[in-house]
């Protein structure tokens, strides 16, 4: 007999969709969208429509394993959890004694986004006193830039855009990354409202927009400033709002006045008359909204650009009316539960060494000053997802480095493991989820037992804590007990639930808060901060990205078939996506004698990486774009896109994944 249970998508995606899983109690047979989920409403992405194929994949790692071949060779033998636990504990104890806790480096990111399973490793590593990982791989410069202007004010949720009169889709591949917002854009167009795309690579979104404006990567701040210049010149700004409800308008105005469309044309590559027309349209719109992705923020100037775009969203006073403003991702809903109850910062006795995740390559190869002797990866795939890949591999090949990887599949990172531990899928574990694109909170309890010997992150760290001899009660609880602990210490977003809502939530349900209040700014002064005195650069202005000496700007575009390196386990999705294509503008391709489908090599001072050329007008001139993340098993090459990316950190501490330059040549094979 089979039955259907609710569950939650665990992946790094703004929606945390509601799913329905058909099961016989042992296996997951089929997965579909939950029509009752307040955000999903029956619509999920193509990746998760056959989640059961991932869960039941024959390629899953099902037992602990020990390396028997050379590092990176991917040869392992099965061992028991007891053997694995003893080996890890013995090695960790030796390192603690000989090198100290800062020689142990954990690495994790967004494999699973639940509060319990994502954060539980922190308790273990806090207890060890190991390095702390600075988690700035994704879009934190965008969040920090927004917050530098708006404080804790919620941004718009996608559904609020139904009331917008003009929508600028700015640096967001909505179709790939925020599919639930697509109907809103389509509805707006049907109602005769304009949807304009501002992109460096418009391949996927152009068909869904009325107009596409291609911009030179990393220069969006100049466009935002020039739009404000035109708006101010025409007197379309909301002068009363800017003077009374914002800080620093007068100080900022001279910067705006010098930022003409002609100046911005030289920087952005967008003709001055297009900038002028777009600015007028935005300035005259009743309730203009910016739907903001993150691609533009992964540059040296990312935080500053986010500030400038956020200020533009307020320049005409749009936030005062429903539908006006900016829809980004961190909406400041909740908090619902206190994640410190899982991460246990109180277990750390002395401050640990901080390692930025963008600098893993140099951390692993530094054998002089701050040597790392153990590297523990869980819920992440840094060899595929983090910059400076060749350097990271050099580090992982060190014979004196002990690498443990807790994974579901033999990823490029797992290949370098000394001990490989089997991880579960979301339906085999219990967790709770706060969405980052909506104000929702969900519970997803275990539906079936883990396959093989797989353990959840929680169970694995509790097991290792026992092997280490840790006495804390925290490590003796089950994940169900941890969930109960979180729910019985509710934070603001859960304080006013009715009994019926609690019952639904506990039974793998989702609760949703109303839209945020955008009319009162949650900043220390209650005013919006055009000038922010807390920052190194208090008055916003245009800053150049890092760039480099090579002619083409290299960017990464999210792909509809994959989510970072997740779903590479699915032959159906991988086949539909095709080979690792490097998209080039026809003029850039012609200058290099490159045609569609040619084998090409992109190179810079860090590495050479092979791709297949895809020649398209839908990429900005001077830009080379790659869609999503691949694995070496698919490309047949050891080095991938991220080998071309430097470890440089942005102005607000985050990744500069899109801020690298390369040249490209045709390869003769
Ligand atoms: N299908 C799918 N869904 C995903 C993901 C995925 O890989 N695949 N990833 C998930 C994760 S972890 C995240 S963080 C989010 C990301 O979701 P988004 O924020 O929507 O995507 P980004 O990767 O940040 O980039 C969006 C767009 O920025 C463009 N871009 C790059 N540089 C510039 C620039 O300088 N200016 C402008 N205007 N555009 C630029 C790229 O061409 C790309 O189309 O999506 C999540 N959802
Ligand atoms: N070239 C390029 N690089 C990128 C990006 C890009 O678009 N292009 N995107 C960037 C962004 S936005 C992000 S957020 C990062 C993501 O960086 P990562 O989080 O390192 O990358 P993922 O590919 O999501 O890898 C997650 C891994 O966790 C595993 N996993 C899933 N669930 C669990 C679990 O419960 N337990 C354990 N132990 N493992 C689990 C999955 O099998 C997968 O291998 O990558 C960044 N890097
Ligand atoms: S990956 Fe995103 S869109 Fe797809 S089901 Fe999960 S949360 Fe929904
Ligand atoms: Mo991300």
Automatic annotation (TrEMBL):
Alphabetical keyword list: Iron, Iron-sulfur, Metal-binding
Keyword Cell division set for record: no
Pfam entry (one): Molybdop_Fe4S4
Entries under SMART domains matching the protein: Molybdop_Fe4S4
Highest rank taxon of the organism: Bacteria
Keyword field contains Iron: yes
Protein family (similarity comment): Belongs to the prokaryotic molybdopterin-containing oxidoreductase family.
Name used for this protein in its record: Molybdopterin oxidoreductase family protein
Organism expressing this protein natively: Enterocloster alcoholdehydrogenati
């Amino acid at each position: 007999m089979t039955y259907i249970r609710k569950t939650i998508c665990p992946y790094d995606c703004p929606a945390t969709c509601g799913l329905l899983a058909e099961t016989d109690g042992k296996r997951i047979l089929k997965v579909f969208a939950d029509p009752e989920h307040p955000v999903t409403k029956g619509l999920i992405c193509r990746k998760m429509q056959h989640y059961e194929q991932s869960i039941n994949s024959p390629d899953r790692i099902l037992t602990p394993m020990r390396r028997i071949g050379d590092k990176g060779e991917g040869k392992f033998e099965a061992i028991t959890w007891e053997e694995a636990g003893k080996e890890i504990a013995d090695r960790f104890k030796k390192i603690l004694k000989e090198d100290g806790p800062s020689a142990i480096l954990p690495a994790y990111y967004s494999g699973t986004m639940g509060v319990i399973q994502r954060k539980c490793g922190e308790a273990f590593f806090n207890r060890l006193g190991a390095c702390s990982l600075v988690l700035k791989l994704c879009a934190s410069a965008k969040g920090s830039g927004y917050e530098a202007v708006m404080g804790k004010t919620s941004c718009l949720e996608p559904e609020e855009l139904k009331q917008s009169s003009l929508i600028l889709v700015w640096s967001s591949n909505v179709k790939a990354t925020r599919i639930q917002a697509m109907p809103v854009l389509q509805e707006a167009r049907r109602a005769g409202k304009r949807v304009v795309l501002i992109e460096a690579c418009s391949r996927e979104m152009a068909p869904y927009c009325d107009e596409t404006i291609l911009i030179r990567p990393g220069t969006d701040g100049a466009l935002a400033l020039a739009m404000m210049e035109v708006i101010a010149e025409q007197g379309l700004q909301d002068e009363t709002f800017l003077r009374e409800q914002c800080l620093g308008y007068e100080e900022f105005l001279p910067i705006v006045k010098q930022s003409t469309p002609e100046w911005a044309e030289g920087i952005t590559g967008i003709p001055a008359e297009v900038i002028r027309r777009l600015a007028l349209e935005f300035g005259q719109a009743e309730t203009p909204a910016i739907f903001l992705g993150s691609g533009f923020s992964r540059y040296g100037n990312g935080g500053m650009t986010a500030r400038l775009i956020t200020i533009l969203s307020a320049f005409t006073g749009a936030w005062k009316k429903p539908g006006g403003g900016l829809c980004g991702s961190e909406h400041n809903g909740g908090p619902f539960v206190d994640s410190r109850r899982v991460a246990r910062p109180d277990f750390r006795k002395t401050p640990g060494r901080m390692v930025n995740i963008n600098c893993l390559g140099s951390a692993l190869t530094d054998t002089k000053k701050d040597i790392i002797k153990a590297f523990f990866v869980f819920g992440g795939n840094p060899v595929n997802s983090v910059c400076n890949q060749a350097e990271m591999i050099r580090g992982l090949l060190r014979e004196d480095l002990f690498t443990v990887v807790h994974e579901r599949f033999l990823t490029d990172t797992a290949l370098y493991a000394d001990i490989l531990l089997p991880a579960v899928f979301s339906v085999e574990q219990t967790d709770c989820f706060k969405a980052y694109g909506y104000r929702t909170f969900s519970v997803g309890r275990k539906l079936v037992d883990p396959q093989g010997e797989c353990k959840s992150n929680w169970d694995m760290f509790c097991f290792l804590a026992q092997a280490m001899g840790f006495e804390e009660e925290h490590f003796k609880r089950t994940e169900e007990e941890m969930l109960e602990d979180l729910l019985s210490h509710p934070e603001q977003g859960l304080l006013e639930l009715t009994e019926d809502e609690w019952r639904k939530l506990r039974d793998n349900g989702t609760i949703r808060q109303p839209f945020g209040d955008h009319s009162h700014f949650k900043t220390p002064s209650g005013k919006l901060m055009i000038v922010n005195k807390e920052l190194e650069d208090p008055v916003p202005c245009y800053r150049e990205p890092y760039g480099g000496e090579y002619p083409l700007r290299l960017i990464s575009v999210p792909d509809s078939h994959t989510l970072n390196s997740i779903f590479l386990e699915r032959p159906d999705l991988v086949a539909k996506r095709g080979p690792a294509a490097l998209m080039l503008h026809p003029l850039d391709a012609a200058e290099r004698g490159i045609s569609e489908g040619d084998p090409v090599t992109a190179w810079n001072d860090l590495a050479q990486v092979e791709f297949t050329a895809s020649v398209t007008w839908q990429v900005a001139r001077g830009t080379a774009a790659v869609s999503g993340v691949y694995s070496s098993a698919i490309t047949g090459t050891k080095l991938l896109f991220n080998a071309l990316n430097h470890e440089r950190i942005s102005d607000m501490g985050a990744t500069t994944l899109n801020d690298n330059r390369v040249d490209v040549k045709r390869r003769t094979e």
